[in-house]
Design brief:
Distance between the termini: 60 Å
CATH architecture of the largest domain: Up-down Bundle
Shape: elongated
CATH superfamily of the largest domain: Outer membrane efflux proteins (OEP)
Structural class: alpha+beta
Radius of gyration: 41 Å
Mean pLDDT: 85
Number of domains: 2
CATH topology of the largest domain: Outer membrane efflux proteins (OEP)
Strand order of the largest sheet: 2-5-7-8
Number of strands: 8
Strand content: 5-15%
Order of helices and strands: HEHHEEEEHHEHHHEEHHH
Largest sheet: 4 strands, antiparallel
Helix content: 55-70%
Number of helices: 11
Low-confidence stretches: 1-22
Length: about 450
């Protein structure tokens, strides 16, 4: 009995541990995060569907220019046949009218009708408008892709920054604990005062909540990255890589404003929107023009007083012709529709002008931020080297008895601040570079290679 219980316990442990072992965290770098967002980001998926919908509209518009063929059939059973009236020819002087039934009890009619529009301004203008709309939707989708890529990149940089700050705070904590250990050893030997030992203890305790806050910030940054990618909240990810300074080509930065006016996808979409609204003006104006169409009809019909109908009972008939229709007066509705379409076009022109101005200003601001961040990165690199050297000198002086605990704390604080400043400068540069590449419509090569 004990042996059976032992076996059940082992099986239960296996059942519990197997799912836990299978839920391994996914290790992702920057390129992995961006590629995953192309597959899992919900906003990007909705934009992709809108593009497909626009393509379907193009097909629908082209279908209006093609022949239409329809079939209809009808069976009828006369419950009470209609009549027409004739005079009583046998006795005309009586003035009597004789009702004569017409038709049959059963009738079947089969029709095949074909129609081809020869001229309709709305149809042909609509084809061009639908293609412009599809092109605008494609540019909007490209803009959404760039927005998603930039969003994921910035979230990934933020997660790396938070992770490196956490690692630095843990290193500071280890340094403070090591320093406390040295102070305690020197205090037992009577080399340092109780005040120095107290300051070292306080320094360690002050760092504990900082480390906890850094842990929390790192977890929140990973959560923001997971949301930007579009992964489930339960998906476990581990970051790969470090916050490295990668400088953009100087030519890209120098020519950014002019290049953005040519390659920005949102700007292209707005330009196409102006053309689309002009096409809608032309569509509404088509209400003034006639419609000319060719048609043909083939009819197959039979009529009988019983249901013993065979193919020999059917009579064939066919017609072809042209139809012309034109709206002569519609209560000034066409004028009103044209006027509304013109207002929409003017509105899109104003939106385009406003976006162009905002894009120029935004790109110029990003370039300034890039250059400022670049100078900060270069300056803070030297500051970190000097602060690190100062900390090592202060620690050595304290161990040798020629320095104070206050000098060590000040040197540690200066080193921490220098490292944080440099990391923040690198982060600001990378974020600005992501914003600039989004404005310029630059898609990273690893994204296109993935597709």
């Amino acid at each position: 009995m004990k042996r059976h219980r032992f076996i059940l316990l082992i099986v239960s442990l296996c059942v519990v541990t197997i799912p836990m072992a299978s839920a391994q965290p996914r290790i992702i770098g920057l390129e992995d995060a961006v590629r995953l967002s192309m597959d899992f980001n919900q906003e990007l998926a909705m934009s992709r569907l809108e593009t497909e919908k626009a393509r379907a509209r193009v097909s629908e518009a082209w279908g209006s220019t093609m022949p239409s063929v329809s079939f209809d059939g009808m069976y009828s059973r006369a419950i009470k046949k209609p009549v027409f009236f004739l005079p009583d020819f046998s006795n005309l002087s009586s003035g009597n009218i004789i009702p004569i039934e017409i038709g049959t009890d059963h009738s079947i009619t089969l029709n095949v009708t074909a129609q081809q529009i020869l001229f309709n301004s709305a149809v042909f203008v609509g084809v061009g408008a639908s293609q412009l709309y599809a092109d605008a939707a494609h540019e909007s989708y490209r803009a959404k892709r760039l927005e998603t890529i930039a969003k994921v990149r910035k979230a990934f940089y933020g997660a790396l920054l938070a992770d490196e700050v956490r690692a630095m705070m843990l290193e500071n904590m280890n340094n403070a604990e090591e320093n406390l250990h040295n102070v305690e050893v020197l205090s037992k030997q009577g080399i340092v005062s109780d005040y120095d030992q107290l300051r070292a203890q306080v320094g360690v305790e002050n760092l504990r909540p900082v480390v906890m806050q850094a842990d929390n910030n790192a977890a929140l940054a990973v959560e923001a990255l997971r949301a930007a990618i579009g992964l489930d909240v339960d998906a476990q990810i581990t970051l790969k890589g470090r916050l490295a300074y990668e400088q953009l080509e100087q030519a890209v930065v120098d020519n950014a404003v002019g290049e953005a006016m040519q390659t920005n996808p949102t700007l292209s979409a707005l330009r196409l929107a102006v053309d689309v609204n002009q096409a809608f003006v032309d569509v509404q104006r088509s209400g003034y023009y006639p419609t000319l169409a060719a048609f043909g009809n083939y009819q197959y019909q039979a009529a009988k007083n019983n249901l013993s109908i065979s193919t020999n009972d059917f009579i064939k008939s066919s017609t072809v012709g042209l139809s012309l229709s034109m709206n002569l007066f519609a209560g000034f509705q066409t004028n009103a529709r044209v006027e509304q379409a013109q207002f929409d076009k003017q509105k899109s022109i104003e939106q385009l002008a406003a976006f162009e101005l905002g894009l120029r200003t935004g790109v110029h601001s990003i370039v300034l931020q890039l250059r400022q961040a670049q100078k900060r990165v270069e300056a803070q690199g030297k500051t970190v080297e000097q602060a690190d050297r100062g900390y090592r000198i202060a620690s050595s002086r304290f161990v040798n008895g020629s320095g104070t605990q206050l000098e060590v704390n000040d040197a540690q604080l200066a080193l921490t601040q220098a490292k944080v400043n440099r990391m923040q400068a690198v982060y600001d540069y990378l974020v600005s570079s992501a914003d600039l590449e989004q404005a310029l419509g630059i898609i990273p090569p690893y994204v296109t290679a993935h597709e």
